[in-house]
Amino acid sequence: MINKSEIELKVAEFLLQIKAIKLQPSKPFTWASGIKSPIYCDNRITLSYPSIRTYIRQNLSALIQEEYGSVGLIAGVATAGIPQGVLVAQDLGLPFAYVRSKAKEHGTGSLIEGEIYPGQRVVVVEDLISTGKSSLQAVEALREAGCDVAGLVAIFSYNLQQATDNFKEAKCRFNTLSNYNALIQYASEHAFIGPDDLELLRRWRDNPSDWQLS
Predict the structure, then answer these.
(1) Which of 56, 66, 147, 182 could lock onto 8 through a cystine, CB 3.0 to 4.6 A?
(2) Rounded Cα–Cα distance for residues 156 and 68 (Å)
(3) Residues 6+ apart with CB under 8 A from 180
(4) What is the mean pLDDT of residues 102-122?
(5) Least confident segment among 22-26, 65-69, 91-95, 125-129
């Protein structure tokens, strides 16, 4: 059985060390949705670090086996979920496909790339979960194609209640290697942030849409 708490903190450590995650409580980032955020996450950076890439691949594979059992296909979510999904599919010796953010506007007009079959049991691989909207669009596309989606795995989640609600409504399980709660715990314990920043980060998690610095 995998030690989830240990993995959560180790992945948080890696993401902070290589600056795949940046914490700026006093100088927040602006998401595409307009939400002000004290955190920015780009897990694609992990691909540039072989030892970290290997740790993530091995533990995503173990998480899939422990949580979902036998599956027949790994499906990545374009674009950042594609390389992670390929690595996991290779590790597990499984076929791979990926879901586009929208159907191609030329050729076959495909939304899903790769061979899939009705009834095929699939686990979706994503790099990051914020609200879950784009991830669940991929899940729905696979379901509409006749696949049996066992669930979804990702490297990191912001622990937003909106994501939990969205996945529950879609009746889709999800699991992540690390998350916002583990991240701010590790960051606080290892002096990446101070006590005042920790409080700001906690308040953002609880209410991101109305979060303010003071």
Answers:
(1) 182
(2) 18
(3) 39, 156, 157, 158, 159, 205
(4) 82
(5) 22-26
Q: What is the DSSP string of 4-45?
A: HHHHHHHHHHHHHHTTSEEE-TTS-EE-TTS-EESEEE-GGG
- Is the separation of the CB atoms in 13 and 187 below 8 Å? no
Q: What are phi and psi of 30, to 5 degrees?
A: -115, 120
Among the listed residues 121, 136, 146, the one whose alpha carbon sits nearest the alpha carbon of residue 167: 136
Could you give the C-alpha distances from 158 to 1, 40, 108, 135, in angstroms and in order? Answer: 24, 10, 36, 14
CB 74 within 8 A of CB 125: yes
Residue 164: Cβ within 10 Å count:
14
pTM exceeds 0.85, yes or no: yes
Contact call for residues 177 and 8 (beta carbons, < 8 A):
yes
- The C-alpha atoms of residue 76 and residue 132 are separated, in whole angstroms, by 14
- Read off the pLDDT of each residue in 171-175 and give the average, rounded to a whole number: 98
Which token pair is 182? 């583990």
Per residue in 131-157, pLDDT tens?
A: 999 999 999 999 999 999 999 999 999
Residue 2, classified by CB atoms within 10 Å of its CB into exposed (0-12), middle (13-18) or buried (19+), is middle
Helices (H), 69-194: 81-92, 133-144, 161-169, 180-189
Q: Two tokens at 166?
A: 């969205």
